[in-house]
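Look over this record as teaching material.
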Amino acid sequence: MKLATLTNGRKDGRLVVVSTDLRQAVDATRIAPSLLDAVERWDSTAPDLLALYGSLNAGTAPGAFDFDPSQAAAPLPRAPQWCDGSAFLNHGRLMERAFNIAPIPDSDQIPLMYQGGSDDLLGAHDDVPLPDEAHGIDFEGEFGVIVREVPMGCPAPLARNRILLLVQINDLSLRAFGPREMRTGFGFFHAKPSSSFAPVAVTPDEIGVAWSDARVHLDLNVQYNGEWFGNPNGREMNFGFDELIAHAAKTRKLSPGTIIGSGTVSNAGGARGSACIAERRAIELIESGASTTPFMHFGDRVRMEARFEDRPVFGVIDQRVVQSSPPRA
């Protein structure tokens, strides 16, 4: 099943069901006004949403219309919680090697995770307004999951059953703030502006065998200013989403609609490129002694897409960064 949120002037948007080829959609607000409401009442809403999805794909859903992803918000324009992991150890090891950073103790046993802002999540085609190029603007291609309620202390084998939907993410970063914020011990704040999401959230069955071991075994194809940047595959997660959920729920309950991210997708060996500029800069530093790829400038554009059996899965993230307007008095 594929679900999206269309903008309608309200904070949580309007829920629609989207066809498997992402060409058609149908209003689903008679079942649930928003995706957050649908997730909160999943046991009662999912059967009706699935029936509507079946009729849409069969061409029998009344009121079907062309799906325009440029009109889509993030599947959850705001979420109860957004927790982002760093589940690809290759990325961390490259950064440690490039910048002579001491390894984080037990990072291969205990996932790294920070809690980001979830009150203003961006759509796939929204411009990204940011105040200053000097902040080190970077994209980060990720996969993520949306969960139903997860009880505190939930172990990983049970956490896997709490996953409802898969999402694709551009977790934007401002790299200039990162070093100081990490030294404080309080974690990221200014370094993590609003994240962006591909238009469509999908149930795991939509990617068939590519959903395995609580990992998304799909290439994440990244283009930067129209040129190939990388196509790393999500299968190399050192911690599956079940383990990330269990980690997040160790001392707290997770509310329905909580989003858990994988961290930037990263593959060993370098042949598949990267899903963020910081990793490419680290590789350049290791290989040639200097980082040559600059961080993003205003007007730069990034495009991200994952496909299954040559079909679109989540739709495309296609965004440019722009200078934010100064606040009005």
Q: What stands out?
A: The chain has seven helices and 22 strands. The two ends are 46 Å apart (CA to CA).
